[in-house]
Design a protein that fits this description.
8 strands; Chemotaxis protein chec; eight-stranded antiparallel sheet
């Protein structure tokens, strides 16, 4: 996977956290992975399709998900519930939507976000790409982004 694909997601993530949650995030070292080991408890997942296809997973420690939901909803979230799941889904959607806009040339569509609670999930990325992991930290805890995106082969002219 190329830097031109991952950078829009990194920029969108840091901007979304700063703008929507007034929270600065620090990016860790990027790494390639072929597994989803190390996911946290709350995972926002979005599929991308078009001239490029793939998946983005935003994985939040429970404390980060609770704080983010509290900030977005302007109330205290103390347990994982439907409101927290909805807030994580909305954050995931904002990040993917902003990144998609930066990747306009690939004419992508984004799916509605799915949020999965639990760290033993099986998410499939395109078989032609090794996903990139981007770890982030903030004062609330840790977040992990995984992005796997592949450009479709152009169709031959008829």
């Amino acid at each position: 996977m190329q830097a031109e694909f991952i950078n829009p997601f990194i920029i969108s993530f840091t901007n979304t956290f700063q703008t929507m949650l007034s929270q600065s995030v620090t990016r860790g070292k990027l790494a390639l992975t072929d597994s989803l080991e190390g996911l946290y408890e709350v995972n926002g997942i979005i599929g991308l399709s078009g001239k490029a296809v793939g998946t983005i997973v935003l994985s939040f420690e429970t404390g980060v998900a609770l704080q983010a939901a509290s900030s977005l909803l302007m109330c205290d979230a103390h347990e994982l519930n439907d409101d927290v799941v909805d807030a994580v889904g909305e954050l995931t959607n904002m990040v993917a939507g902003a990144a998609k806009a930066k990747l306009d040339q690939y004419e992508m569509s984004i799916s509605l976000p799915n949020v999965v609670v639990g760290n033993t999930i099986d998410v499939r990325f395109p078989s032609t790409v090794t996903p990139i992991i981007v770890p982030f930290t903030c004062e609330w805890g840790n977040i992990r982004m995984q992005v796997g995106l592949s450009v479709k082969d152009p169709q031959p002219a008829a």
